[in-house]
Write a structure and sequence with these properties.
This protein is about 35% helix and about 25% strand. By secondary structure, it is α/β, with parallel strands linked by helices. Among the domains are: about 140 residues, Rossmann fold, CATH 3.40.50; about 45 residues, Pemi-like Protein 1, Chain: D. The strands form four sheets. It has a seven-stranded mixed beta sheet, sandwiched between helices. A four-stranded antiparallel beta sheet has the order 4-3-6-7, with helices on one face. The longest helix is centred in the middle third of the chain and has 18 residues. The relative contact order is 0.12. The structure holds adenosine-5'-triphosphate and magnesium ion (MG). The site of adenosine-5'-triphosphate has 13 residues, from strand 4 and helix 2.
Length: about 350
Amino acid sequence: MNNGQNDKNERIEQGVNGDSNVNNIETGAQDGRQIDYEKNIIVCENLVKIYKTKETEVVALQGLDLVIERGELMAIIGNSGSGKSTLLNMIGGLDRPSAGKLIVDGQDLLKFNDRQLIKYRKETVGFVWQNNARNLIPYLTAKENVELPLIISNKKKKAAKAMELLEMVGLSHRAKSKLSQLSGGEQQRVAIAIALANNPKILLADEPTGSVDTKTADQILDVFRMMNEKLGVTIIIVTHDRRIAKKVNRVVAIRDGRTSSEMIRKRSYAEELKDIKIGMESLEDETHQEYVVLDRVGRLQIPSEYIEALGLKGKNKVKMFMENGKIILEPPEKQEDKEKEKVAGT
Ligand SMILES: Nc1ncnc2c1ncn2[C@@H]1O[C@H](COP(=O)(O)OP(=O)(O)OP(=O)(O)O)[C@@H](O)[C@H]1O
Ligand SMILES: [Mg+2]
């Protein structure tokens, strides 16, 4: 927590608002597991978000568990409506969770008052959206756009900082171009520079490559990776695109408002680049190990393909047993069939 630029201010703020900060290490209430809030910048536990309208109630997050380490570069994938943007909005302090636990950078977001939430949004997180209109002001130049957040937060040496960021995203030569004169991919790179202007600890990107072609998407993802390596900023990228696995170390899949599986890179990206120079298309399966997420009370989600294949759709029970150190699931019919056989045999 003490490696940010606003160290001093942060400590003063912590003193004033001590009640919304948690101890560095806390013991989980349900299973006694130790949670290290220094190592883990984001901890979601049993996170629930319910959107209520006059007629309906939508449970967008249904008890989601997720831990993200400081300095991670990771992606969240999932079908439309699975709760990806909802989760990002919670982590970004744009909306409040309905229940559960959400600790970001040692701060308990459920305990924040409005003033604390605004301060958190300004200082701790940066956003990149799919829609450029949300990121950028079209009639200003690239440099002016990057300077804007620095002006708002009253930072010194705005011009130099803006140029440094544009240099990092590979656009210093277009600093004086109006946004309307830049391509979609270039505009997204300016958006990344803007999001990083106030040195956030976390960068949240919701479908940042949703409106560009594959080649441009790869370039944008390379910029994210470079920023992660150079600045140590924690980056979360939300996407529909499963190809993202090739560009990040961990991919978490969300299904129906819960984390359902994780793909973790077997070797670090740097290691991989050293000795592999093969086409990106063939990388995915060889480089990642896929896991099903086990929550803290032992529940797991059976992948939908398995449910289909076993004919478990619409059933609410399975038979589970252990054999040779492995857990085996069987459709309930099999058991019923056995019983029928037994009855027939007697
Ligand atoms: N403001 C809101 N009011 C009511 N329901 C909402 C609201 N925002 C999201 N929802 C609902 O919550 C669920 C999760 O939505 P969310 O936007 O998080 O999905 P998503 O995974 O980001 O989908 P997409 O890939 O299409 O962007 C959906 O059923 C959606 O209709
Ligand atoms: Mg979304």
